[in-house]
């Protein structure tokens, strides 16, 4: 019998393979460092150059954002009122408890919601209409685009004072126009009447913000393939059907970004309300940012103003995150 190809059976036990793996792990993981930290350290070494490149931006972000936020939270747990006592007094969560029982805060939150939703809605409506018009070819389109961008390019303070004079109860241009057309029998006190003050402020802020909406929507429309409109026209689609089933669905990513940005900017907008009404009359245009300002620099309740600012920051973060999640879910589901 030929035994040339015969090999003895291995005497190695069946559980030898895990031992080999353990020996390999011990060789590749010297010092007994846990595998997770070993992987983190290995990844850090691999991307070291990238981390070094973003380090300056990270330091600037920490200085201008993180440090002020931490300082603000620290101030919010102190009673800081220089007119009553010169030194800060630790008060814990007293300022936050005060938020729950402040009726002025509740009214300012409701008015902030009206101010934000109303402004963004009007801005989007006018911006969409202007973008649809400017998306068509006509003589003077370039000049029209330039003129419609003037409100956005104008400094906020200048625009606010211009509208304040137009709203003037006796000398305002708006009252002169509507009385000349016999639309009203007497002048309207636009900024002094509680029923019209907030509406006038929303109109002013919408005038300021609609060019941004128009520009972004126009850019999105010009990226939509024209073949889609040609094919739908062949199938007999009307303008409104093209707008509903082609334009608006394809503009959804643009709409998501611009409405989010406009909502954050409007929520934090201080200039227009402060210049036009100062929060009046009778607090009917008092929004959260002006309420924070008054508590800080008029009443000198710095600790409570810091707690209000933390609340303002938390509301913006939570609503922005919820909006992003909602829109992302809609993009996934195709709604």
Describe the structure.
This protein is mainly α and 335 residues long. It has a domain of 224 residues: MetI-like (MetI-like fold, Orthogonal Bundle). It is 70% helix and 1% strand. It has 16 helices and 2 strands. It has a two-stranded antiparallel ribbon. Helix 4 packs across helix 16, helix 13 packs antiparallel against helix 16 and helix 15 packs antiparallel against helix 16. It is flat. The termini are far apart.
Put the structure in a nutshell.
The protein is mostly helical and 335 residues long. The chain is built from 16 helices and two strands. The chain has a two-stranded antiparallel sheet.
Order of helices and strands: HHHEEHHHHHHHHHHHHH
Low-confidence stretches: 6-16, 18-27
CATH fold title of the domain at 110-333:
MetI-like fold
Query: Which strand order does the major sheet show?
Result: 1-2
Distance between the termini: 78 Å
Q: Calculate the mean pLDDT score and round it.
A: 86
CATH homologous superfamily caption of the domain at 110-333: MetI-like
Major sheet description:
2 strands, antiparallel
Helix amount, in percent? 55-70%
- Rounded to an integer in angstroms, the radius of gyration calculated over CA atoms is 31 Å
Determine the strand fraction and express it as a percent band: under 5%
CATH level-two architecture of the domain at 110-333: Orthogonal Bundle
Class by alpha and beta content: mainly alpha
- Based on Cα principal axes, name the global outline: flat
CATH class of the domain at 110-333: Mainly Alpha
């Amino acid at each position: 019998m030929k035994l040339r190809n015969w090999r003895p059976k291995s005497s190695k036990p069946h559980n030898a393979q895990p031992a080999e793996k353990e020996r390999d792990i011990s060789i590749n993981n010297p010092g007994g460092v846990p595998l997770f930290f070993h992987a983190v350290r290995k990844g850090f070494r691999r991307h070291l150059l990238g981390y070094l490149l973003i380090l300056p931006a990270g330091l600037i972000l920490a200085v201008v954002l993180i440090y002020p936020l931490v300082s603000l939270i620290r101030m919010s747990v102190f009673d800081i009122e220089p007119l009553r006592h010169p030194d800060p007094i630790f008060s814990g969560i007293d300022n936050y408890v005060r938020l729950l029982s402040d009726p002025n805060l509740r009214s300012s939150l409701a008015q902030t919601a009206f101010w934000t939703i109303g402004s963004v809605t009007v801005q989007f409506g006018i911006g969409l209409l202007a973008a649809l018009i400017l998306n068509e070819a006509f003589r003077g389109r370039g000049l029209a685009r330039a003129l419609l961008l003037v409100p956005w390019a104008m400094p906020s303070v200048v625009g606010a004072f211009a509208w304040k004079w137009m709203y003037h109860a006796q000398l305002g241009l708006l009252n002169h126009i509507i009385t000349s057309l016999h639309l009203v029998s007497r002048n309207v006190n636009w900024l002094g009447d509680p029923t019209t003050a907030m509406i006038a402020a929303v109109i002013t802020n919408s005038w300021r913000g609609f060019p941004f909406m128009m520009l972004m929507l126009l850019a999105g429309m010009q990226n939509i393939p024209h073949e889609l409109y040609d094919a739908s026209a062949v199938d007999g689609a009307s303008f409104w059907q093209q707008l509903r089933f082609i334009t608006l669905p394809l503009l959804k990513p643009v709409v998501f970004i611009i409405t989010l940005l406009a909502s954050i900017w409007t929520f934090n907008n201080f200039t227009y309300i402060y210049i036009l009404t100062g929060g009046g009359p009778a607090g009917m245009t008092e929004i959260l940012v002006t309420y924070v300002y008054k508590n800080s620099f008029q009443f000198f309740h710095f600790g409570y103003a810091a707690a209000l600012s933390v609340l303002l920051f938390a509301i913006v973060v939570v609503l922005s995150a919820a909006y992003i999640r909602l829109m992302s879910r809609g993009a996934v589901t195709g709604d």
